[in-house]
Amino acid sequence: MRETLFNWLGQTLYGKRCLDLFAGSGALGFEAASREAEQVVMVENNRSVYQALQGNLKKLALGNVALRCEDGLKFARQVNGLFDVVFLDPPFKSDCLPQLLPLLANSLAQGGKVYLESGAVFEPDASWKVLKRAKAGAVHYQLLERV
Predict the structure, then answer these.
(1) Do residues 44 and 24 lie in contact, with contact meaning Cβ atoms separated by under 8 Å?
(2) What residue spans of the chain are helical by DSSP H?
(3) 22, 50, 61, 83 from 11: Cα distances, Å
(4) What domains are defined for the chain?
(5) What is the pTM of this model?
């Protein structure tokens, strides 16, 4: 799935600002950073997972990554700045996607994209255009853009 995502986005993210709102393992955020994103903000609520991310960041020595230990929904309500790419991979049992997309609409740069993963088919409202959509096992994933 990650390979497909970065094929969708293009192989380089040079100069892009990225937000990984539910960082978890950090795979998407670290991958974006390694693909020359200007800045990657990774948000993770679970303190032990956050500490593991801190350790991995130290080992990788990536100067373009900022970590935040905070609830993703709360962060999205308070975000100050524009992002070119937002990664949304919330816990599958959460129902926050309908709340998150309107919040993120004002945080997207012109032409910005939102990548999201969900455990069930998710249909965004009419203010979003689905650019790409696929399924791998039980995971549904898609790339969105504001209309």
Answers:
(1) yes
(2) 2-9, 27-34, 47-60, 72-78, 97-105
(3) 22, 27, 21, 18
(4) 2-6+22-146 (3.40.50.150)
(5) 0.94
Please report which helix (H) or strand (E) contains residue 113, including its range: strand 108-118
DSSP code at position 144: E
Q: How far apart are CA 128 and CA 130, in angstroms?
A: 7
Q: At what angle do helices 27-34 and 2-9 cross, to 10 degrees?
A: 40
* Band of residue 23 on the pLDDT scale cut at 50, 70, 90: very high
Whether residue 60 contacts residue 30, with contact meaning beta carbons closer than 8 Å, is answered with yes
Q: Tokens representing 4? A: 């497909």
Give the Cα separation of 140 and 64 in Å (integer).
29
Terminal alpha carbon distance of the chain: 25
Which pLDDT does position 2 carry in this prediction? Answer: 81
pLDDT digits (tens, 9 = 90+) for 63-73: 999 999 999 99
Residue-level length of the chain: 147
